[in-house]
Amino acid sequence: MCLGGTVRNAMNRASSAWLFLTPALLVLGVFFLLPVLAGLGLSLTDYDLYALADIRNLRFVGLANYWELLHRPLFWDALGHTLYFVIVGVPLSMLASLGTALLLNSQAAKLKPLFRTALFAPVVTTVVAVAVIWRYLFNPQSGVVNFVLTHLGIGPIDWLGDPHWAMPMIILFAVWKNFGYNMIILLAGLHAIPADLYEAARIDGASKWRQFRHITLPALAPILLMVGILTVSGYFQLFAEPYVITEGGPLQSTVSVLYLMYNEGFKWWNMGTASAVAFLLFLVMFAATALLWRFGGGRGEAA
Amino acid sequence: MKFARLIGIVALAVLVALPAGCAAPAQQGITLEFWTIGPEGEAVAQLLPAFEQANPGIRVRVQRIPQTAAHEKLLTAYAGDSLPDVVQIGNTWIAEFAALHALEPLQARVAHSGVVRADDYFASAWATNRVDGALYGIPWYIDTRLLFYRVDLLREAGFAAPPRDWAEWQQQMDAIRAKSGDKRWGALLPTNEYDQLLALALQQHVSLLRDGGRYGNFQSAGFKRTLSFYVGLFKRGDVPPWTNVQAGNPWQAFGRGDFVFYFSGPWNIGEFRKRLPASQQDDWSTAQLPGPGGPGDSVTYGSSLAIPRTSRHQDAAWQLVEYLSRPDVQVRFYELLGDLPARRSAWQDSTLQGDPKLRAFHAQLEHMRPTPPVPEWEQIVNMMQQVAARAVAGQLSIDQATAQMDAEAATILAKRRWVLDRQHGHAQ
User: Fold this and answer.
1) Are the beta carbons of A50 and B243 separated by less than 8 Å?
2) Residue A266 touches chain B, beta carbons under 8 Å
3) Does A227 map to a domain?
4) pLDDT at B24
5) Are the C-beta atoms of A58 and A48 separated by less than 8 Å?
6) Is A56 inside a domain boundary?
7) Do residues A36 and A79 both lie within one domain?
8) Which residues of chain A have a CB within 8 Å of the CB of B378?
9) ipTM of the complex
10) Parent domain of A164
11) pTM of the complete model
12) Number of separate domains in chain A
């Protein structure tokens, strides 16, 4: 009797758990799983304007969209630009976040609330509005940035027209725009480190650097990993910045994978190709995140 | 669909609820949905009261779509079965929406119309509305590209008149540059805008696509001549290799005299009048595009009025199209907004004849060429400019660039070839 009661009890608990989960699962299913599956299906077809006009013009093409993309120089260029943005932008962004968080957390810092707000402000501004202002600032002829650089003796740089300088400018913009968010998270992490650890280290005569290396970093490691993963997946989805500032140019040097997808899908209505681009980007992001997880996880264990 | 049914039920309920004494004449209750793109909506709203007065049964509701979102919005509306009764449509999009069977053919209505007469329209503008023999839109206003130039600076360099052909144009720009000690550029041709190269390419009278729009024709001798001339302007240093993002504010730069020729469209007549000081208003003018051997052709842009197939008030919609096509209404529209009338007779009006800066446009309108009517055109012409920009940057030779344009055009047109071959197969 007693045993049966436990089983029934467990079953009841399981079914009520499912009952509570149902709304969330339904929402996830309808608004996430279904569109993803539809997108996957779409990427195996050549859905385009002609198919929109007459469904008999729709062909199932298998993996042809993927195959063609992998043979298209522009796709590899876009992937290269995106990786460049991620590989340079993410570490810069993390360093800026960590640096400002440490400064704000230090004993010597004055007017903390003011600086915290000021440094966080770019995060809550609208990308498009700020990007337009940056376009003015970095204008090669009349921009403030080149004005200052020229006075410092560094020749004017063609930020918007030179294919080598457009991406660095986009990276600068993205780092400036985004570091405040991670800064706040890291600041919370710093507050959570018990002060007596530092006190003990000081008594043992540990230098500031060794305190940072052996207390702050290990304590922050899990947060750094999470922030890193979020930043990487965010930076892979580069779109608004080049869309507004450079329109993908000059010479397509700032076309990102997502920009390519937007052009294919919403400008030229090649939904099949656009979906294939999206899934390829998903695979790349999945691999990058998995690597980061392994790498970060290993370090976490060592500490 | 369900939504439409819901509206139907609500409408029915309202009708039933209305007292029988209120029953109106049969015509009453027609509300035409009219979608406009960009600033036209605001101006056309001032023309509509007269139309509604003359046609008491018809009311017009104007919806304005922003320029940048217009193409997507129209496609989405088509996919969602919610296109309006009358729509303003860019004339380079006609082929695309005709391929979608989204638009009602209008040639039968034109044949019986007392207002719309084909021969009164600028020929090229009319031609952009025809796809495979059927007419899908009536030109509403015209837009083209020609040269704005600084009269004073050109005279300073020793020339009394704007250039008539390419050789003269190049000569003038060389002189301007030399005279100013390389302080001035000859012209501004932003490397990320395709209008300029396209206009110069259309002047060659060689089709940019071949085999009925199945393949690109960029390796033709004509296009290569144009591309060599275009790339040469940058190589000689007559034109800065800038995108329009780098160029910043072109009106200021034109006013400062950073460059003497500016390749642009009719809206800039208003902009220059507004943005340049009164003392400078006599220093600029407009000129027809120079061509390879004498005055050249230009692009045919502008908007047409079209009636979507799904409209349930097509007779009333046609009445609105006819009203907006009347020469006097076209002149009024020009006065409100500065859009160039698509009808020759409207240009006889004193308002248009009296403006010296418009004269070059009037001449240019008789020298325009349509772009190939294939749905993929926008994508092809964007690709053309991207490859041309790489040639300007020195990454590709003329032969490499044109070969790449043809290769990419072939890829873009692959689906079109398949669809055409299939239709052909069915027909046989």
Assistant:
1) no
2) yes
3) yes
4) 40
5) no
6) no
7) no
8) 268
9) 0.77
10) 72-302
11) 0.83
12) 2
